[in-house]
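Incident log, support desk, overnight shift.

02:14 A customer reports that sequence design results differ from what the structure should imply. Their input is reproduced verbatim below. On-call engineer (initials T.W.) acknowledged and began investigating.
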C-alpha cells in the first residue's frame, strides 16, 4: 500500500448559478454565494467562505471555489445562499440545503434555489496525482571506497521540502560486494517523489554500507521527476568532496499504475446499493409490549428505526435510483405457516424495493402487523440472497452493502462463515448492528479487523467485509453508530475494485457550462 487509508479526502466545490431572480429594477443583480456548514446535528450553520461578487449577471460562474474535508460516513449538511451585493443590505436571492455526500455522489448537481433559479455545484477531489511508479535502478562502475574488496552500495531518495531541506522517502537494500549493483524494483507515488510538482528537485545519494563506523558517500545527483521516470535515463554521480565523477546510476525499468480513490470509482459510475434485513425473532419481545425492541412509541424511535434512518440516509446519496430491497428473517410472514429466514417485507418477491431511507422506515412500521415473531436467528439465508444479486450484476457497476439489524446470538455460525468467505470475492460488504442488550460475543468473531476469517473448509477470506457494532456502544447516538459502521465501506470498495483489477480511465471533470457568455437559457435534463 502506498497511500495510507486514514488520509483525509479533500474536495473542492466549483459554484455557478443559472436564471437567478432579478431584484434590481434598473440593472441585473450583482450576486455572490456564501457557503455555511452545520457541524453538529440540529446545530447552527457556520459560514466557511464566500465567492467574489459578479457584477450585473444572472448566470454567474464564480471563480472562487470552496475546499472541504469529506467524510463518507457522516452527513455533513451544507447551506448555500446567494445574495445580491449591496453595501448596506445584501438582498437574498435564494438558498438551498444539501449534504456533501449528495454532492459527491452526483459529481455535478443542479439544485433549485428556494426563490427560483438553479445553483450548479461540481465536486472534484483535491488530488494532484494518481500515478504510482515501479522503478528499477542499477549502478555502473561505481567509485571504489574500500582499499580491499569492492563496495556494498545502496541508494537513498529524497524529496525537496524547501531550499536546502530534504526529506528521505525511500532507501534501497544493500547489494554486497559489487561496483555494478542491480537493485530490486520498488514503488513510489508521484505524491511522494515531488508532491506532484514536476518542477521540484529530487535528490539521490549512493552510499557504501559499512558494518562498523559511518557509511561512505560514493556520490550524489539531483534531477526532477520526468528524467527520473524515463527508461534508460543515466545520471552521473558526483563526489561532493572531490567534485569529480563517481559512477553512473541508470533507470533500467519503469512501470506506471494508477492508484484510484473511492471518489474516482464513483466518477467511473460505481453505485452503492443498500439492502436491509430485519430480525423478527421472538427474543425481540412482542410488539405490544412496551419493552419490545420492536415497540413503536412516541419520540425518538426504537433502535431499529434509528439505525435504518441514519445509515440509510447516508448511503442513499450514492445510489441513483435510491430503491432498496428490504427483507425480514426469523419471523412468520402473513399467510405462511412457519418461520421464514429471508422474506421480502413488501410481501412481493418480484418487487422487494422501497424508495430511500424514509421508504424503509415506513415499510418496517407497517410490516410489524403482518409478521409474527419466531426464530431461530439464522444469517446465511439473508447473506446468500445478497450473494445471488451481487453475482448477477457486473462487479464494476454496483457495490452492495447488506445491513443486518439483529437482537441476538446467531445460531448458524458455520454456514454464515462459509457465506461471508464466499461474499468476500464479490462486490459486497456486510454491516451488522446489534440491537438491545443481548450478548454479542460471537458476532465479534465475524468482524476480524486485520485477521482473516476462515470457513469450515479452511478457505481464507480474501478481504475483510464485515463491520459489527452493538447499538448500545454509542449510548443511543445513531449518528456515531452510522459513522462507525460506514467508515470502512470506501476502503472495502476500493480494495475490491483493485482486487478485480478494475482501473478505468477516470473521466476528466468538465467545467460548468454556460454562464456569462451564453445569452440563451440552458435547459438541464436530470
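02:41 Re-run completed on a clean worker. Output:
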Amino acid at each position: 500500500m502506498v497511500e495510507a487509508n486514514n488520509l483525509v479526502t479533500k474536495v473542492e466545490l466549483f459554484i455557478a448559478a443559472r436564471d437567478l431572480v432579478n431584484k434590481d429594477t434598473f440593472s441585473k443583480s450583482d450576486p455572490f454565494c456564501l457557503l455555511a456548514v452545520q457541524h453538529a446535528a440540529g446545530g447552527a450553520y457556520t459560514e466557511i467562505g464566500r465567492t467574489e461578487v459578479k457584477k450585473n449577471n444572472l448566470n454567474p460562474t464564480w471563480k472562487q471555489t470552496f475546499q472541504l474535508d469529506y467524510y463518507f460516513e457522516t452527513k455533513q449538511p451544507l447551506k448555500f445562499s446567494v445574495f445580491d451585493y449591496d453595501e448596506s443590505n445584501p438582498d437574498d436571492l435564494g438558498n438551498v440545503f444539501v449534504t456533501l455526500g449528495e454532492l459527491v455522489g452526483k459529481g455535478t448537481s443542479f439544485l433549485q434555489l428556494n426563490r427560483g433559479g438553479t445553483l450548479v455545484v461540481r465536486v472534484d477531489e483535491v488530488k494532484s496525482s494518481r500515478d504510482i511508479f515501479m522503478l528499477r535502478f542499477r549502478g555502473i562502475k561505481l567509485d571504489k571506497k574500500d582499499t580491499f574488496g569492492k563496495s556494498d552500495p545502496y541508494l537513498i531518495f529524497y524529496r525537496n521540502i524547501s531550499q536546502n531541506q530534504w526529506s528521505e522517502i525511500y532507501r534501497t537494500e544493500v547489494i554486497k560486494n559489487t561496483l555494478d549493483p542491480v537493485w530490486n524494483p520498488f514503488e513510489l507515488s508521484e505524491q511522494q517523489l515531488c508532491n506532484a510538482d514536476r518542477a521540484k528537485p529530487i535528490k539521490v545519494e549512493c552510499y557504501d554500507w559499512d558494518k562498523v563506523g559511518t557509511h561512505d558517500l560514493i556520490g550524489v545527483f539531483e534531477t526532477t521527476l520526468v528524467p527520473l521516470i524515463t527508461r534508460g535515463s543515466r545520471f552521473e554521480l558526483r563526489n561532493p568532496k572531490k567534485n569529480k565523477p563517481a559512477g553512473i546510476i541508470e533507470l533500467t525499468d519503469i512501470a506506471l499504475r494508477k492508484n484510484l480513490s473511492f471518489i474516482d470509482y464513483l466518477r467511473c459510475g460505481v453505485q452503492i446499493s443498500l439492502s436491509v434485513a430485519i430480525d423478527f425473532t421472538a427474543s425481540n419481545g412482542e410488539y405490544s409490549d412496551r419493552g419490545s425492541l420492536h415497540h413503536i412509541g412516541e419520540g425518538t424511535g426504537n433502535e431499529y428505526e434509528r439505525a435504518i434512518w441514519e445509515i440509510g440516509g447516508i448511503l442513499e446519496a450514492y445510489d441513483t435510483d435510491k430503491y432498496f430491497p428490504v427483507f425480514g428473517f426469523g419471523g412468520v410472514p402473513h399467510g405462511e405457516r412457519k418461520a421464514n429466514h429471508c422474506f421480502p417485507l413488501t410481501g412481493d418477491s418480484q418487487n422487494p424495493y422501497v424508495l430511500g431511507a424514509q421508504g424503509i422506515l415506513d415499510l418496517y412500521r407497517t410490516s410489524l402487523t403482518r409478521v409474527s415473531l419466531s426464530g431461530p436467528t439464522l444469517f446465511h439465508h439473508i447473506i446468500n440472497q445478497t450473494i445471488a444479486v451481487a453475482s448477477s450484476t457486473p462487479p464494476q457497476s454496483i457495490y452492495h452493502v447488506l445491513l443486518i439489524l439483529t437482537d441476538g446470538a446467531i445460531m448458524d455460525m458455520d454456514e454464515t462463515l462459509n457465506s461471508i468467505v464466499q461474499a468476500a470475492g464479490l462486490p459486497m460488504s456486510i454491516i451488522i448492528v446489534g440491537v438491545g442488550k443481548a450478548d454479542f460475543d460471537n458476532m465479534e468473531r465475524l468482524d476480524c479487523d486485520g485477521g482473516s476469517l476462515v470457513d469450515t473448509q479452511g478457505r481464507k477470506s480474501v478481504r475483510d467485509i464485515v463491520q459489527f457494532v452493538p447499538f448500545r456502544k454509542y449510548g443511543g447516538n445513531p449518528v456515531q453508530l452510522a459513522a462507525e459502521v460506514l467508515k470502512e465501506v470506501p476502503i472495502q470498495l476500493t480494495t475490491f475494485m483493485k482486487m478485480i483489477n478494475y482501473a478505468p480511465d477516470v473521466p476528466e471533470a468538465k467545467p460548468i457550462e454556460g454562464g456569462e457568455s451564453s445569452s440563451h437559457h440552458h435547459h438541464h435534463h436530470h
